[in-house]
Amino acid sequence: MQPLPRLAALAAFCLAALPAAFSAAAADGPRERLSFNADWRFHKGEPAAGKADDGAFNDAAWRKLDLPHDWGIEGPFKQEYAGETGKLPWWGVGWYRKHFTLPADDAGRRIYLDIDGAMSNATVFVNGREVGGWPYGYASWRVDLTPHVKAGGENVVAIRLDNPPDSSRWYPGGGIYRNVWLVKTAPVHVAHNGTYVTTPQVASDSALVNVQVTVDNDGADTDVQVATEIYALDKAGRRTGAAVARQDATAAAKVAAGKQVQLTQALAVPNPRLWSTEAPQRYVAVTTVTSKGRAVDQYETPFGIRTIAFDAQRGFLLNGKRVPIQGVCQHHDLGALGTAINVRALERQLEILREMGVNAIRTSHNPPAPELLDLADRMGILIVDEAFDMWGEQKTPNDYHRAFPAWHEKDLRTMVRRDRNHPSVIAWSIGNEIVEQGKPEGWKVAAHLAEIVRGEDRTRPTTAAYNHVSSGYNGFQNAIDLFGYNYKPHEYGKFHASAPHIPMYGSETASTVSSRGEYFFPVSDEKSKGLANFHVSSYDLSAPPWATAPDVEFKGQDDNPFVAGEFVWTGFDYLGEPTPYNADTTNVLNFTDPVQRAKMEKDLADLKKIAIPSRSSYFGIVDLAGFKKDRFWLYQARWRPELPMAHLLPHWNWPERVGQVTPVHLYTSGDEAELFLNGQSLGRKKRGPRDYRLRWDDVKYQPGTLKAVTYRNGKPWAEDTVRTAGAPAKLALSADRDKLQADGADLAFVSVTIADKDGVPVPRTHNRIRFSLTGPGEIVVTDNGDPNSFESFQSKEKNAFNGKVLAIVRTRAGAGGKLVLTATADGMQAAKVVLESTAAQGR
Ligand code: GAL
């Protein structure tokens, strides 16, 4: 190359570094993506008079609210509502309307409404005209408003949602429960989710990054070019330093009016910092689209550079290194906050799970909010992104199976296109426990769906969560790239022997059930035992018929090291599906064996005869309020073996059991432990090769102090002590964070623990706790994690459940200051926590 004269070189550099200037014409101005969440009007049901889709309809009397919104979570809980879906009213029709003005300058621009999720069967009207919609409540979709809106005038968008009854197996929520955006672009622009960044070659000195860009031309015939710059991002998502790679504009492609073009650029990133679970380095590809020499669009695609592989012998490999999948399945609700997406609430869930050692989430059984994937990218959490809980065969009479024939392809493509740039996503799941497994040639549907996914992305395997043993042998196993068994630790070896070339993992495991802080005696290892008073004992031995204690799955994994890991059902408790106090018949489908099935059907019929108060699940390792159940530490001991830790159970407040056998279990990352009761040794025990807990099963209860001293390789490792508490005397408050952002979305999760006069937590107390708040914010909800609490989440007071309650405080937008949350209870001193809310740049 001829050396350029100095000035010309500088000019060339500037041109490349600062993308070509945007046109002075407003229509070609830079893309905008504006939050469209504020100032909606909402009405539950059809309006009594008039047509809500009509532009002139008067909605002034409707409730004013901001999105995201879940109309079910305010309740009330009702006994007669199904426990399966949380005993909350999420079904029916709901309308949302928003009036908005577009500046005159928007004339000639493309105007899109992007809906991250609306539950469900949405129809969108603009200025009285039906303009689009989407049935699947978990999809993210776009409506083109351009032909229907007035620039320089007032517009009204009306959205009708309709949740049929019997359409979900868990609490789905209702409403526009995810974020909504107004996107404005020039006529020539990057298409919806129109970039696809892959890293086909990754080495320590260089990575090849392919950026494929789909450009829509909604204007007249023109030419289109794209240019790319890549920057490293810091943890907060800000660019660091200069571009690490740059590709100037490609040769112009001619694009006719109304057509689309796909342009690809290849860039080399020198010395790439790889995305991993320990160091989740991200980059951003900045795409500049030019047309007729003018920049018309700029679009950012965050991505990561890493390699993934599922190996049939070695499991999951990230950047060539085996990473055992330590995963949990998660439903989408955020406990007392319902399904309305809140980034901090999600982040807190992930933080708690990561403390346990979680490195992976399966988004059961649907595409998640996009914010979950952003968080996972940032935090280094692996994701199995799941599309469906059913295909053409129903699980409940009005579920998505009705839309499946017409919509499955769109829904699958939409999911993959939205999510394929996230380094966290490691596999695409086409379905969970699909009923078609039981049909001859049902595998053909699996093969069809997997091919659709591969058409959008071949850099990740397709997978499915199979619960029929036979799916390992009857064609289903060959339809996907990565085989997932639900609840089949005893089948891993057999499957592997028959298909040694197919990588596999436990797509859903354990389903152990328990209520935080409840223990029932005598303790039995039979999984059907441990039930009383609509609670389940917390010895972590109880599970429904298809499920197991955690230890059984651990053994299955350890005996079969080719298994890539597991996704436990579930990380957090969720609203709905309160098995075993659930008259839901769906899980009968887990049984192909006629004898087992008949027994299950009879049990369920018996259950249906009694009034069941349960509203939320018992499956969580963490309860609905975010309080850890005992097995949190069982998983932590396994998943964070280098963390010195020990956890004793049960609590030690059993005045009615003096002298009676009260087994003591210990979860520890140590390999040996000695147990002391009031200073007396009850014996030192060593963990055997497949022991995941240490047990002293014949301890006779005496009040006092129970202490475990653990060892690893003969050296002291960690200790835990449990003391008998006296009467409730004090409230101990602790906030997850005390520095908040005054953005109207940030939350503090304040936990209250009831303690005796010496500060020892009181385990079996249910005192009523009342909250009040001063300062610029509000108490949004309270919860205690009790699956049988019917008290409104919005109530500012609540009974403690086994000594604990949670209050969630939200800041006020634009108003910083000191927030003081006070908790009071009869006969106890009030306690306070002080939070600082500051107006700062967005989260
Ligand atoms: C599975 C199912 C999950 C949940 C779980 C409870 O069979 O895939 O959605 O129902 O059982 O154990």
What is the percentage of strand-forming residues? Answer: 35-45%
Instruction: Please give the CATH architecture of the largest domain.
Output: Alpha-Beta Barrel
Overall geometry = globular
Distance between the termini: 46 Å
Protein described:
By secondary structure, this protein is mainly beta. The chain folds into 5 domains: 31-177, Jelly Rolls (Sandwich), CATH 2.60.120; 188-303, Immunoglobulins (Immunoglobulin-like, Sandwich); 322-512 and 547-575, Glycosidases (TIM Barrel), CATH 3.20.20; 639-650 and 654-723, Immunoglobulin-like (Sandwich); 730-838, Sandwich (Immunoglobulin-like). The protein contains 10 helices and 47 strands. The strands form 11 sheets. The protein has an 8-stranded parallel barrel, surrounded by 4 helices. Strands 3-2-4-9-6-7 form a 6-stranded antiparallel sheet, with no helix packed on it. A hairpin with a 2-residue loop joins β6 (122-126) and β7. α4 packs parallel to α5 (443-456). The longest helix is centred in the middle third of the chain and has 16 residues, at 404-419. It is globular. Residues 432-433, 467, 486, 508, 511, 544, 547, 569, 577, 579, 587, 590 line the site of beta-D-galactopyranose.
